[in-house]
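P.,

For your records, the input lines for the assembly:
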Amino acid sequence: MKMKKSFATLLLGVVLLTYGCTESATRATGVYMLMDTSGTYAKELTKAHSIINYLLGTLQPGDSLAVARIDSGSFSEKDIVGKATFNTRPSVANSQKRLFEKKVSDFVKNAKGSRHTDITGGMLQAVEYLQETGAGSKKIFIFSDLEEDLKKGHIRDFPMRFDGVNVVALNVTKLRSDNIDPREYMARLEAWQKRVEEGGGTWRVINDLERLENIMAE
Amino acid sequence: MSMKELLTIWPDSPALSMLVWVLLLVTILYLARTPAHQAIKSSSRILSRAFRLASRAVLIAAGRLERRNRDVLLAFGLDAAEESATRECQRMDVAIRRDLSSYPAMNRKVMEMVAKIDNDYNCGSEVPPEPASWINAVSSVAKIRATGDTQVAKMLADIKVNIDTEHRGAIAEYRKSNSARHAILEKMAPSWRETAQMLTSVDKAVKDLTVRTEVIDKKVDEFETIRNGTDKAARTLASSSMTQFVVSGLVLLVALGGAAINFNLIALPMSEMVGGGSFIGPYKTSDIAAMVIIMVEAAMGLYLMEALRITKLFPVIGTMNDKTRFRMIIVTFSILFILASVEASLAYMRDQIAADMQALRQSLVAVDAVVPVGSWIPTAGQMVMGFILPFALTFVAIPLESFIQSSRTVIGVAALGTLRVTAFTLRLFSSIARNISRLLVSLYDLLIFPALFFDRLVRTHLLHAPIGETKGRIS
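Structure tokens returned:
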């Protein structure tokens, strides 16, 4: 009788340990990758593709990934190339990653340059997505020269909230005008840094894409 | 107003102010010298006594603990010696049953053999042939004087022929009878050998029993020594406990290594079952689930060993009736077998997941997947390990029991050592407190040495002054 009781207690403990008190969302990582498709930057998309592949290899089951393009009006779900919250089962997550990679490959092959660059709209969309995932660690990777060129009539000069979001600017290329006056490049970076940090987020710039392991560091 | 300003009597000459304060302080200290000395001495005495009392209390506690340790050690030793002696007795019982149960039959057989040999011996003894009855008649006839009578000569010749014939017949009969006796003796040889073999086996069994008896004697002596609670027995048991503690600790470390390998085998595939993205505290749920499975296996192994009466950590299991115990053996072994099979499957799944992940990573970096040569070997190896390790972990119960039992002694000895060191430290503090009063008194006097010097000077002067002068002064 005693043995039965102890066995039942043990079984209950196993069940509780296995299924009870779990906290998956807060441990998960949410990544939103913004790809600038405007003008000459569209040529850089192959680099963005390799970064996405790196992210697919790095993200764990339960993590979320979304890839979106920056075009003339980026605050729209239509600009999302692909999004997925990977299943907690590794085998299913691997299948999801394969599908995701195919979507991104197709996009990179057929991507067309846009006239305008609505970075703020893309950022807003990214923050919204990441808040919805409920992930504990939220990251926005922005693959752009950070030069915003809004369509006439679009209003984007308002403060944004980046609470708990790490924004990482990747491969911020120098424009022709930056070579003439580098202060423009610095001012662009500083403006975005200020905007992100004032919104409660953190800001980093990584131009050396040879060391991709740095991009996931907190 | 600051303290410095308060203490400065003459702001223009701080040295003078300081001197005045020093003089004032020395005077006060001089006046309070006797009560101050008493206060220092009594304080140190109180401290010293308190430390000494504490030291004595700790020593008494150490003594109690030592006695308790000794009692526990002897109780364990007594149990072990009793068990060992009982086991030897059981072995002897088995040997007696095995070797000597057939003794009556063997004895009967030996007696039969001896009787047969005796009979054969009797049959084989040589009986001298009886002289023929007609020999006397022949002798009488042979005495007849030869007179040349042909009739007599013929008769004598016939007699000779008859005698020769009879002689040849007797010789042949004698030879035949000898041959028969030899044949009987030849038949006796296997009986001798068989008897000798029987006696040899009896001798061996008896010698074996003698050896076992000596072992039992030793065990009983050991039991007696422990029961008498001699220092030698306590020392031997303590030393044995220490050795057991170290050895079982090392074996447990090896088992922990095995458990770690087992954990690595099943942690990844467990994420397929319980999800790879959930956490319990800072740990992945899949890791905890894998750990729980290993713990359950270890627990089942422990119960199995208990049910088999190899270990005695849970007396409840050991004292169960044989039927229940047998059921428990079946149940625990079945659970272990199922868990081992699950682990083997998980090990296979681990290999599949790892291969899938590898393929995905290779596809993501645009590298063609490389098919490893002989890739079934690690898969099979992992599956075999996954199946065997749970059973191997079962045997952890044996060193675990030794470790738990010996740790009682080791912890007792360590606690005793700590208490003794504490007692020594308290005794040392007591001694320091007693002697420090002398140092403090001397330091006190050093602070007021000008006043003491002046005091001595005055006393010397008064002592050496003429009596009348002194009296006059006094009056």
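Two observations worth noting. Chain A is about 40% helix and 20% strand. The radius of gyration of chain A is 21 Å.

Regards
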